[in-house]
Each structure stands twice: as C-alpha cells, then as structure tokens.
Amino acid sequence: MGRNESRSAVLSEAVPLAPALLLLLLVYVGPVVYFLASSFVGSDGSIGLQNYSRLFGSATYVTTIVTTLNLSATTTALCLVIGYPVAYLIATTRAGSSLILLVVLPFWTSYLVRTFAWIILLGRSGTINSTLMSLGLIDRPLELSYNFFAVVTAMAHAMLPLAILTMLSTMQNIGSHYSRAASILGARGAQSFLRIYLPLSMPGVAAAALMVFIICLGFFVNPALLGSRHETVITQIIIDQLSTSLDWGFAGAACVLMLIVSLAIVALYQNVFGMTAVTGMESRESHGRLRSIVSRGSMRLNGALGQVLSGIGKGIEGLMCAAKIEPRAGSTRIILVTFVALIVAFLLGPVLFLIPVSFSTSSFMRWPPEFFTLRWYEGYLLEPIWTSAILRSLGVGLGAAVIATAVGTPAAFALVRSRLPGKPALMSFIIIPMILPHMVLAIALFALYARLGLVGSAVGLIIAHAVLAIPLVVITVSSVLRNYDRRLDQAAAILGARPMRVFRTVTLPLIGTGMISAFIFSFISSFDELTVSLFVTGGLTATLPKQMWEDAINQVSPGLAAVSTVILIGLTVILLLTALYQRRSGSTAIELRG
Amino acid sequence: MTDDSRRVDLGRRRILKVMGASATVPFVTPFIGRAFAAERLVVRDPGGVVNEAATKAFYKPFAQETGVEVVGVTSQLEPLSQIRTIVNSKSYLWDVSVLSAQAQEILGKTGYLDEIDPNAPGIVDILPQARSPWGVGFQIYATILAYSTKTYGDNGPQSWADVFNLKMFPGRRALRKFPIDTLESALMADGVDMNNLYPLDLDRAFKKLDEVKPSVTLWWSNGAQSSQAAASQEVDIVATYNGRVQAAIDDGAPFKIVWNQGIWASDGYAVPKGNPKAKLCHDFLKFCARPDRQAEFSKWVPYSPPNPKAYEFIDKARIDLLPTAPGRVEKMVMENGSYWAANLEKVAARFNEWIVR
C-alpha cells in the first residue's frame, strides 16, 4: 500500500515534465535520431562504422573541434569576467533596472547585422583603426579583424547580455542581509564580498558559463565572417558537408562526434561544479564511487578556492594599507562604475554604430559613412516582403516563447523539487537542443514537416523554435528556483493558503524575474534564429533573420543597418513601455526583496 | 452530359498542346495565362543583384505575358541537399532553381532533375557549353583577379603567378574558401597551361597554395564578402566573380579587374523532378532563353548572355563590362563542370583539411 502510494506520488511529480519531454521526443529526438542513424550507413549502403573511421582519419575534424572548444571556452571566460561586475552593479543598485535596459539593447538588433558592424569596426580601414590613426596614436593599422581576437570579441558581444542576465537572476535572490550580517561581524567590503557574495552567486556564474559555452559551440556565422582560416569551426564543416558534398552519413557522424564532446563536457561540468548549479538539484545521495570522489574533490576545490579568494582579498587590503589608501567603499564603487560604463559602451558601440551607417549613401557598409540618404529606409521598409517578415518574426517569436515558457517552467519545477530518480540524466536530455547545431534539427525537421505538410507554415516554425527555447527556460527558471527559499511557501501554507494561492501570491512573484528572463530569452532566440528558419520556412514565408541573411549573403548594404535600426527602436519602445507599466503597477518582486 | 463536357475538355487540352508544340509563344501565352491564372512559380536564385536583375528581366515580364506570378527566393549557393530533399519528399518549395554546371550534372545524373528540351525555341540557341541535359544557361560569369589601384597604382598583378608572388606584390589577399576556381588559379600560377588544367594535378595545386597561404587575410565563402572586402579596402588583391568586384568599383572602390586567365562558367535554370507544374516550369525556361530577356538581364548585372543572339540588344558600353567582350574569352579558361561533378566531394574534403592546417 505505502509503497504503491509513494510510487504514484513520484509519478505525479513527473507529470509536469511530461509536456516538455513529449515535445522534445516528437519534434526533436525522433527526427534527429533518424538523421543521426544515417551515420552508420556507409556511402555504399552498407551498415558499419566507415563514416567514423573516415572522420578520425582526417585531421580536419579533430582540428576544428579543438578550435570550436577553444573559441567557446575563451568567449565564456571573457563573458564571465566582464559580465560579473555588470550583473553585480545591477543587482546592488537602485538604478539597476535602467541598466538592464542598456544591457539587453544589443539583443534587439540582429546577431547577423552586429557581426557586420564588427567587420566595419575592426577592419583595416575601419572605425577603430581610422580613429586611432587620425589621433596619431598609431602609424599603421592594427590587425584587429580576420583573427581569433575578432571572433572572440564578436562572440563575447553576442553572449554577454545572456551571461549578465543569467548571473543576475541568481544575484537578485541573494538577500542584502547576508552582507549586512557580515559587516556587523566585522568583515570589510572586500572580505564580505569574497567570502559571502561571491560563493552565493556561484550557481549563477556556473549556469551562465554552461549556457554561454554550449551556445558558443554552435556558432558559425561569426567565425566564418570575422575569422581567418584558423577559426574554422566544426559546425561550418558539417554545414559544408551537408550542403556541398551531399554526404548525409558523414555529416551525421560529425554531428554524433559533436554530441559526444558536448555531453562529455556537460557530464564533467556536472561532476565538478555539480549540476545543482544549473538544475537546482541537491545531490546528497552519492551515485557511485567516482561521483562521490569527484564531488568530495570539488567540495575541497571550492573550499580551497574560497580560501585563495579571501587570501587575495586580504592581500589587496594589505597592499592598500601599505600604500596608505583608505579602503573606502566609495573608491571601489567608482572603479566598479567606471568598469561597468566601459562594458556598457562595448555592448552599445556596434549597435549605435549601425544608426549613422543606415543613412549612408554608399551601397556598402563603410567607414566613414557618406551622408545623407533615406533610400535604405524607403527601399526596405516600404517593401511588403520586409514588413511581412517583421510581423511574421514577431508572431513566431511570441508563440514560441509562450509555448516554451508554459512547457519549460513546470519541467524546471519538477527537476528542482521532485524526488524523481535520474534527474541529471533528464536535465542532460532537456538541454540537448542547445548542444547540437541547429542545422541538424533543421534538416531532420525538414524531412518530417514535408511529410506532415507543415513546411512553410507558421505553426511548424513556432513548434521548432519552442523546442529550441525549452532548455533556455528550464535552465533559467531552475537557477532561480535553486536559490528560492521554500520556507516561504511553507510559511504561507501553514498560515492557511492553498497550494494554488501559495503559487500565485508567493512563488510566482518570487520567480517572476526568472520567468520573464526566460520568456525574453526564448523570444530572442526565436527572433534571431536563422538555420531552422532557412530550411522549414520554405520559399515564401521568410522570417526576418532569413530575409536579412538572404540580403546579407548577397549584398552587404546599409539597408540591413536601416532594418536593424528600425527593429532596435521599435523593440526599445515596447520594452520601455513594459518597464513603465511594471513600475506603475508596482513590482511585487522588488517589494518583497526590499 | 458528363461525357460531353469531358470531350470538350479534352478537345481544349489537345488544342493547347498542339499550340504549345508549334511553340508560337506569343500566341499561346494568353491561353496559358488563363489556364494558370492563380498559378505561381517559385524560383530559387542566388539573390542580391542576380535576383534584382532576374526580377526585371525574367520574373515580372513572364508574369505580364502569362499571368503566372514568379517569385524569386534565395538560398545558399549549391543547394544540392535541399533539391534532393524537395524531390524525395515531393514538397516543391522551389519549382525552378538556379544551379551551377556541376550541380546540374551531379543532380541530373542521379535523377533529381527534369531533362530539358534542347530543341525548344530559345534553348536551341544557347551556347552548348552553357547548356546541360538538365539546365538552361542564363548567365556567364568569370572568376577573375582584381587589385587595388590605391596600393599598386596601375602596376598591379596581371596573372595568377603575380597573385601568388608575395615578394613582388606584398599585400593582403582575399581568395575563395572553396576548391573550385581556387585550385585552377593555383595551377595556372604554377605555370600549367590553361588548356591542360583538367584533370587537376591536386598535389601540385596544394603545394602552390601553401605559398600564398600566409598572405590570404580573407577566405571568403559568399560573394558579398568579397565585394565588401574590396569596397572597404580590407584587402589589396581579390579573386572573385567579375560582378562582385564591379559592384565595389561602381561604388567608388579603387579596384581594377584583370581578365587575363579568368575562369568562366555559366549558371542555368533547372527543374527538380516530379513537379506537377513541370510544364509551366519548362515554359519559364524557354522564356528565359529568349535573346531579348537575356539581354535585359545583362543590363542589370555584368554577366554575359549564353544566347549569342542577345548581343543585338546590348549596347557597346555595356558589352565592355561583360566577360565575353571582344578579346576576353580567348584569354580565359572554361571551368570544367564535369570534372567537378565527379571530384568535388573528394577534393572539397582535402581542401577543408588543408585550410585548417
């Protein structure tokens, strides 16, 4: 009896996961597995491992995988280091919410267009070089483009808002009373930061790292347009294979290899940092010896890291004392604000740069722009093909974000709070759409949709984008839930609130920021998604990124900058209105925190 | 009743067919227009300037004459996989597609394309080199070298050997990140006679490419990149399609085209197999082969008409910008589509391996 009851209880806890898993199985795993299975079919039709022996027999794949990992790791490190102070300032300042608006601003311009902005900014006779030359600071142009530096700069620029928002959602749940308690107990600013704040914010940092890293693995536009031949990534090779060599089996093998590498990294991550960072799972029970050894090791590592950090903190304080600098809160604040201002300038630079370019008379994107014409605005925005693409993308983005949030949030709850066995495995399963290049899904879905008659339909695209966004929602909401103090729910329940009321009046407001971020991420990921759209939208039903991509691969004209500027202004207005509305109706989340 | 109407219907169809066979195009088109009033053809093209020119020369006029709306949609170059998927799944996202010579051969030989009627009016006039059993040429372009006159004055590189000569011509280069054309240019640079390029001596080509590797700043994969690099003077020497450099020159970029040792090729329209609208597709192909249409196309983008009769309709100043202007073709070599159809897969793999090394 009792056993049956507990089993049914566990089963009912699994129910919230069902929609997400079902969607993933039907729209992702099924079609993709079918495609990947082709990797075991050789070019002569025989079943075997010949595609794999070819794969490892060639230096191309090993080299490009190393390049991909290197670019992703560098970008991730850069995003964390420069993003942390920004997130920290937003979380600890009154003006934080206005700062968020600036940070997410680059999100509102197409990733593709920003890449072109970087080409002009970093070029030999580009903005930075020509400015430095005219100031007499350099004699000959710096080598800023077509190298590792350019690719990492543009990738970090693309990923930084995501990193900041992810870290922020954890930081906002760190109560200021901890720091206050530390300072009452005599800890100085640096010490309380290093020993209290930093460790508490680590789950957010780890979640940001995992997310940025995994998304970077799939990047190919930046490396292709801004890199040299040394920055050729594995996704690019897979795409070349698929679109040129027609070698489905071999491309499938390359995809399998990439999947294995990604899963290995996730597994490693899970063991060193603990997947708790991402899923909010508390893995008290040890699964096997290896895991417990690793987790003990990682605990020691964490402890050691803490000591090292506080040691550094003491060292800095010592140095400051020796240099007779009073460690006033004010001076560190000034340094912090200056640093954050620089980062915000980095984030906004390429975005604002596009505005003057959009009025340029030249047919190419050039520096300096020659003024003044409105022809790009007229030529593009009066074209029905562009306006319908904009509307279509907005619709698809909203649809996908609604589905992904509706399906992903319950899944995140189940993964964090239930007692289901095998939660790490489930989590790894859910984030698969983030790890694999979108190209794989694009091809797999094209075949499926063609059979269902869904090619070219908005519904097909919304479902595909929703599936791609589910991992973003699950990870974001989980990272908020992990820091969520369940005693608040229990308190409400004890005071007589029913479960729905607890959810509505306590839980929801507290995780609201996380859900809104999740919704925004989903919307953006759809609004900016290109690869799947390229395949499943067919000929006439282009989304905005597809329309822009077509324009961009054929002519790099200021028209792209014009479209981009209009989107930027439109979405910023929407965002500002939302923010105003929130302020007027009074954000319960902020009140609760205060 | 039913029998009667069926007979009438058959009769009308037969008349149409007879008329179509007699191929008095202007006479038939009003009928086609009525028969397919709500029809639409989706044509995959490489976009950009080619799309603009094709819209003016082919799509809109075809709609005016037949009432069939033609919509050009863009996709990445060489959409081999997409065509295969389209045919296999019978979902005809594209009714007609622009394909390179080697793509026509690869897809045609494996049964993915309709065969064209080589004797149809218009098509019969197309240069045999710009025609395949599966495709009708509408543009001839050339991969040429161009140099910055700002960097080299008028004494820039005049041959592929010069492009590969880093001592004599120091500077940044942009080459295509693809074996087609790049290997040919390397072999010519190494002194291979341009009439004896094929089959390519791959070892020799890659060895020669090793020499130029350090000076290649940009390996471009789509034409717009090469235009942009020339327009923003990111590089000093660029190897790309003549239309791409011309676009930058028209915008004021100080570049000069060298036609010597250019590699010319043609793109054609092809029809993926099994389309219920095949008849209409082939009518479109015939329409695009017409001399007046091909001449109109050349007005908007500097690529030559594969139908020699089109030159009557092109003025002299324009001809001067085309790859087939007098005295040019003799100095150029034709890209061997059959060679690439047979070897692209293998050579591309080797090229990819070489480039990341």
From TrEMBL, chain B:
Keyword line: Periplasm, Signal
Pfam families listed in its UniProt record: SBP_bac_8
Family annotation (InterPro entries): SBP, TAT_signal
SUPFAM superfamilies: Periplasmic binding protein-like II (SSF53850)
CDD domains the UniProt entry points to: PBP2_polyamine_RpCGA009 (cd13589)
Top-rank taxon: Bacteria
Gene3D superfamilies, per the entry: Periplasmic binding protein-like II
Name of the molecule in the record: ABC transporter substrate-binding protein
Organism: Bradyrhizobium manausense
